[in-house]
Amino acid sequence: MTVEARRLRRQSPYPEGVNNPVVELPMFPLSTVVFPGAELPLHVFEERYRRLVGDVLDGNREFGTVLITAGSEVGGGDRRSEIGTLVRIEMAAPFDDGRWLLASKGIERIRVVEWLDDAPYPKAMVERTPSISLSPGSEVLGRAAAAVRRLRMLLSELDSGPCGRIDLDLGDDPTMASWMACAVAPIAQLDGQALLELTDPVARLTALIGMCCDRIKDVEMLLAADGS
What we know:
The protein is α+β, with helices and mostly antiparallel strands. It folds into 2 domains: about 20-130, Roll (Archaeosine Trna-guanine Transglycosylase, Chain: A, domain 4), CATH 2.30.130; about 140-225, no CATH class. The chain has helices at about 5-10, 45-60, 140-155, 175-185, 190-195, 200-225; strands at about 20-25, 40-45, 60-70, 80-95, 100-115, 125-130.
């Protein structure tokens, strides 16, 4: 984790004075950060999460996810982040052997208030922690998008970055675009978690710019060394 990420994680992840209802939610901890608005494809094969999917599809199709900071997705015994994301299943395809292929999408941030019993699958008491809205025309969004594009382009020159288009389609809604810029940025998972925990989109995008600029410097040095 970068120094910037450690600093950001010490900040409050949700607005003061917000009193959201606490509800029980099925939870699917993952080794990746899921941002609101981001697509989340899942191949579900572990028995406990097969049961989770069945129950969720019989209900409102929503579950929560948080980043696993230590341990594994399979078998339990992991250490989990407090701030995560509410996810909604958009499409579900079952296999004959009980596995599932899911197309799901991040909806909104959540905070885990209390973890419940992991049997038959993880559950937690959570509250929604929505982001502050980003004003239309915010210049920091354009700077963040430019930094992400630059980093993706440089990584593609190293043959170690994302393939496909460098141009980014972040959508028309500024607040969701602030999340999507984070989702498509090639940064470390713990850095992504630090961004997820920021309620203020200006602070989030400013931090993202710093993270991208740090990586850009490193990649430019590697490219210069390869060309010398």
